[in-house]
From TrEMBL, chain A:
Source taxon at top rank: Bacteria
Source organism of the structure: Paraliobacillus ryukyuensis
Start and end residues of each ABC transmembrane type-1 domain: 72-286
Designated name of the protein: Carbohydrate ABC transporter membrane protein 1 (CUT1 family)
Keywords: Cell membrane, Membrane, Transmembrane, Transmembrane helix, Transport
Pfam families noted in UniProt: BPD_transp_1
From TrEMBL, chain B:
CDD domains the UniProt entry points to: TM_PBP2
Keyword line: Cell membrane, Membrane, Transmembrane, Transmembrane helix, Transport
Protein name, per record: Carbohydrate ABC transporter membrane protein 2 (CUT1 family)
Keyword Membrane: yes
Family, per entry: Belongs to the binding-protein-dependent transport system permease family.
Domain spans labelled ABC transmembrane type-1: 69-258
TM region positions: 12-30, 68-92, 104-125, 137-158, 179-201, 239-258
Compartment(s) of residence: Cell membrane
Major subcellular location class: membrane
Length: 297, 273
């Protein structure tokens, strides 16, 4: 059946591909090119589709905008706040779940629940938990003598609140991936290490971690990239605002503001392009580092 | 790690984590059934003294969640069916037909997966407004009826189906299209269910795109309607929690029924890297 390509087979293939390509070219490939071009449109009039000039002024303006700089900083803080904790917690939970205990299926289900639920809905629930006077979190903290914290209205605590919500939401996904990775590790490596008298910590460090490094590598890429794209959580948690005093303004939120609230299409496209570059660079860095240090079985 | 911790320590650690994961859902349900005077009680009331189902009817009276529900259902069902159809056809071409430009087209498609969806937002909005589709069902559905990830996943599955099957079908005089529909598709059922479930979850929970392309209340999906409800309901947390419950519960039910496929799908997407 896999014969040499002919014009006839090409035509047939194109017929099969037509519906998918029509959608993907219009809504995936063309906009990638277009968004790159739009970032160079200055004085762009969207309603009349008039482009007055092309140039780098959007990018210059972007990096002179203190809000954009803050959005970049906040996004980096968010990534640093979420990714390491989430990876450590989910790896630990995955290892516990993998240790041949009863009810591990039930636990897995519970940890995975947030993943299938709407970000908007759970963020609203969390905004109620974070309530400064009647919220559950301050109530629990009160047991330990902590004074009520204005989680959602104090600029110092808005980002921690967002980070807590995001870790809770994303934990299940990472656990599932780690579990899949752990289950593909051959039991005999552990047995061999045990016979050689390796301690539990040693076995973890010298057997589990190296064999799990492809999975770690994948989870880190996905987590970092997803964290760079955070938006829904912020919109719902702070009721359509980027936190008190822009304390939860991130790059995607900045794109949304410029694009949808201020109709600055050129500037918004330039900001989106910066996001793309960041995500792209991280993928490349991780690929290079990954190739050097990742041990494949 | 096995002997480092005793069984009971493992259970205690996992149980503490599980409480942390479940607490928001329990608190949501509990608040959604409380009478207004119990909502802000301190210390918190965990089990409402009386189940106050009125919160749900009251939430429905403030905002048309039934309408939002129908919208979400329409968008989710049609875009899932659309994605399945385009994916089956495209995956067949990539796995069973040899044609000019095959590798280039496939590489370009895989390359697009590296671009974050947020980058496509603005040009897609411009395209849709040129088509006059802003604030229509088409805008909510059509851009989401094809997915490179799904095509890739199904192509891998199709490649594993023995070639002899298609030779046999050809000898029996079965057309290629019928072969795809009556042999390949039934064989690929597990992969298709996985693709469909991940799509349903994403589609049901999507927020930024429906927020941007709809203006009128009649076209809001559940997440967009819920987000607007936070201003409409004011600070009545029992109503907010009732509304959140209505958004969350359908996906929880789906997850409880189909969790085997959903978890397998997520695990598979991770193992490939």
């Amino acid at each position: 059946m896999m014969l040499k390509p002919t014009w006839k087979s090409t035509l047939k293939a194109l017929l099969y591909l037509l519906p998918a390509l029509l959608i993907l070219v219009t809504f995936n490939i063309y906009p990638i090119v277009k968004s790159f071009l739009m970032s160079f449109y200055t004085n762009y009039d969207f309603f009349k589709n008039i482009i007055n000039e092309r140039g780098f002024s959007n990018f210059i303006e972007l990096f002179q905008d203190p809000n954009f700089i803050q959005a970049l900083q906040n996004t980096v803080i968010f990534v640093i706040g979420v990714v390491p904790i989430s990876i450590i917690l989910s790896l630990a939970i995955a290892i516990l779940l993998n240790s041949k205990i009863k009810f591990s299926g039930l636990f897995r289900t519970i940890y995975f629940l947030p993943f299938v639920t709407s970000v908007v809905a759970v963020a609203i629930v969390w905004s109620w938990i974070f309530h400064s006077d009647y919220g559950l979190l301050n109530y629990f903290l009160g047991w330990f003598g902590v004074d009520p914290i204005d989680w959602l209205t104090d600029p110092t605590f808005a980002m921690p609140a967002l980070i807590i919500l995001s870790i809770w939401k994303g934990l299940g996904f990472n656990i599932i991936i780690f579990l899949a990775g752990l289950q593909s590790v051959n039991e005999q490596y552990y047995l061999a290490a045990k016979v050689d008298g390796a301690s539990a910590w040693h076995r973890f460090k010298s057997v589990t971690l190296p064999l799990l490094s492809p999975t770690m590598f994948f989870v880190s890429i996905i987590s970092i990239i997803n964290a760079f794209k955070v938006f829904d959580e912020i919109f719902a948690l702070f009721n359509g605002k980027p936190g008190p005093a822009n304390s939860a303004l991130t790059v995607v939120y900045y794109v949304y503001q410029k694009f949808y609230e201020e109709w600055e299409f050129g500037l918004a496209s330039a900001a989106a392009f910066v996001l793309f570059i960041i995500v792209f660079l991280f993928t490349i860095i991780q690929l290079i580092i990954g190739r050097k240090f990742v041990h494949y079985q | 790690m096995r002997s480092a911790l005793s069984k009971s320590t493992i259970y205690i650690l996992l149980a503490i984590g599980a409480v942390f994961m479940l607490l928001p859902f329990v608190w949501m349900l509990s608040t959604s059934l409380k009478a207004p005077n119990e909502v802000m009680a301190m210390p918190p009331v965990w089990i409402p003294s009386e189940l106050n189902w009125d919160n749900f009817t009251e939430a429905l009276a403030v905002a048309p969640f039934d309408r939002y529900f129908v919208n979400s259902l329409i968008v989710t069902v049609i875009s899932t069916i659309g994605e399945l159809v385009t994916t089956i056809l495209a995956a067949y071409a990539f796995s069973r037909i040899n044609f000019f430009g095959k590798n280039i087209i496939f590489a370009v498609l895989l390359g697009t997966m590296m671009v974050p969806g947020e980058v496509l937002l603005i040009p897609n909005f411009v395209t849709l407004s040129n088509l006059g589709w802003i604030d229509t069902y088409q805008a909510l559905i059509v851009p989401w009826t094809a997915s490179v990830f799904a095509i890739f996943l199904l192509r891998q599955f199709f490649l594993g189906v023995p070639k002899e099957l298609s030779f046999a079908a050809k000898v029996d005089g079965c057309s290629e299209f019928r072969f795809l529909w009556y042999v390949m598709v039934p064989l690929a059922k597990p992969a298709l269910i996985t693709v469909a479930l991940l799509k349903i979850i994403n589609s049901w929970n999507a927020f930024l795109w429906p927020l941007i392309v709809t203006n009128s209340q009649e076209l809001r999906t559940l997440p967009v309607g819920l987000s607007a409800f936070t201003t409409e309901a004011g600070i009545k947390y029992e109503l907010l929690m009732a509304a959140s419950t209505m958004v969350v519960v359908p996906m929880l039910i789906l997850f409880f029924i189909m969790q085997k496929y959903i978890i397998a799908g997520v695990a598979r997407s991770g193992l490939k890297g």
